[in-house]
Design a protein that fits this description.
The protein is built from 13 helices and 15 strands. The protein is α/β, with parallel strands linked by helices. The strands form three sheets. It has a seven-stranded mixed β-sheet, with helices on both faces. A four-stranded mixed β-sheet has the order 1-2-3-13. It has a four-stranded antiparallel β-sheet with strand order 11-12-15-14, covered by helices on one side.
Length: 427
């Protein structure tokens, strides 16, 4: 049945639509931190639909909210008052830490980042944008145009002029040999030099932890130091929290808070986990920025009632059960367990991350060169052992990405680490 479905997939869907595994997997249902395939095999899910199943598969509170809302009305568009949308917007604004916050809902992180770029370039009257090397911000024409990761950038055409800044990758590049303070100083000096050679940009867009790029991040405080430089020139700061938001990093509710010395970003984008599998994205910005558009706009499916009901139930569950704290505790144990394994596996260059957002960088033994074949072999072996993980990386890197639902238990973390250890040792 799966082979037939794979053949049908290849006959009607684009060749560039990637699938994991030599024998592609059809996931039919899930519960908690586990999923099952069409053959009835059970897996511990350490990737959560690309960081989207944030709390748990088939979470009863979310399932109930969807069912009850669907029994009333699924959708009416933003042309009408929408109680679930207002209620979720109030909740998101409350936890955003942005003063006088306004919230606009979209259907994806890509659309959220496109909206943020529209707001920033309109507000600043500039089409120049600063972005980070090794970054990823989505698959639309505008988002691809600012993506600093060649593997995910199929065209050089763009409606924007994009200038790339150092700092998103701590352990590679020309500043890798510096200590944290020197690294930040060098990146700030690079930013200041860059700004001296261009017209004033609209904004800097940055992921606090680069997701597709392999869960890389700068030292804490880098974006705060950038913010000082940007603020002097009126340049906006957009934090792409599509993968880092809602407490996944454990230490903070938002990834930007590791760099929050100068206050919150001007714009925050979010998506993925808030819907726990439902299609929700959005933008949070100060009112003066959000309200800068001088033409009509709506969102046909952004803010639709059934997704808003799911998002509100999911966010309430996350806050009431302190899943941020769980991500910090269980994620910390998992990172240390994997680092102990990595010390004995020559293929592992580094285990990095925070909370339940962990990257294991795989290289050819004794070198810093990426080994994508080895990473794929670990992915296959982990699946055979009953564990699903992800892949990522950029600029000649190969990284295993680990991001389970934030309700992961200590026992499940240990089970997953043991499976991954066997997969790594099999190289």
């Amino acid at each position: 049945m799966t082979r037939d479905l794979f053949a049908r997939h290849r006959s009607v869907l684009p060749d560039w639509l990637s699938l994991y595994y030599e024998d592609p997997l059809e996931i039919t249902h899930g519960e908690g931190r586990h999923v099952w395939d069409a053959a009835g095999n059970k897996y511990l899910d350490f990737f959560g639909g690309i960081l989207t199943t944030m709390t748990a598969h088939a979470l009863p509170e979310v399932t109930k909210a969807i069912s009850e809302q669907a029994g009333r009305i699924n959708h009416s568009s933003t042309l009408y008052l929408n109680r679930p949308m207002v209620e979720l917007a109030e909740r998101v604004a409350q936890v955003s830490a942005i003063p006088d916050a306004r919230v606009f809902f979209t259907t994806s992180g890509t659309e959220a980042n496109d909206t943020a770029l529209l707001l920033a370039t309109t507000h600043r009257r500039s089409n120049t944008v600063l972005a980070m090397r090794n970054s990823y911000h989505g698959r639309s024409f505008g988002a691809v145009g600012i993506t600093g990761n060649r593997s995910w950038s199929p065209t050089s055409l763009s409606p924007l002029q994009t200038l790339y800044v150092h700092g998103g990758v701590r352990t590679r590049g020309p500043y890798a040999h510096l200590d944290d303070r020197e690294f930040i100083d060098a990146c700030v000096a690079d930013l200041e030099d860059l700004l001296g050679h261009t017209r004033p940009p609209a904004a800097l867009i940055a992921e606090p932890v680069q997701g597709v790029g392999g869960f890389t991040s700068p030292p804490d405080g880098l974006y705060a130091a950038f913010r000082d430089v940007l603020h002097e020139r009126g340049i906006l700061w957009i934090a792409d929290e599509v993968q880092t938001g809602w407490g996944r990093t454990g230490d903070h509710f938002w990834g930007w808070q590791a760099h929050g010395r100068g206050g919150p970003p001007d714009i925050v984008t979010f998506a993925k986990g808030i819907g726990n599998g439902m299609s929700i994205g959005g933008v949070i910005a100060r009112a003066e920025i959000m309200n800068c558009l001088d033409a009509n706009s709506i969102s046909t499916f952004g803010g639709t009632q059934v997704t808003m009901a799911a998002g509100l139930a999911n966010l309430n569950h996350l806050l009431e059960h302190d899943l941020q704290g769980n991500a910090r505790r269980v994620g910390g144990l998992l990172i240390e367990r994997l680092r102990a394994v990595a010390a004995q596996v020559p293929h592992v260059r580094e285990v990095r991350g925070r909370g339940l957002m962990i990257g294991v960088e795989v290289t050819r033994p004794g070198t810093d060169r990426a080994d994508p074949e080895a990473a794929s072999a670990v992915l296959e072996e982990a699946r055979a052992g009953g564990l699903l993980i992800g892949k990522g990386g950029g600029h000649d890197t190969s990284v295993l990405r680990i991001a389970p639902p934030m309700s992961l238990t200590v026992a499940e973390a240990e089970e997953g680490a043991a499976i991954l250890e066997r997969a790594l040792r099999s190289l």
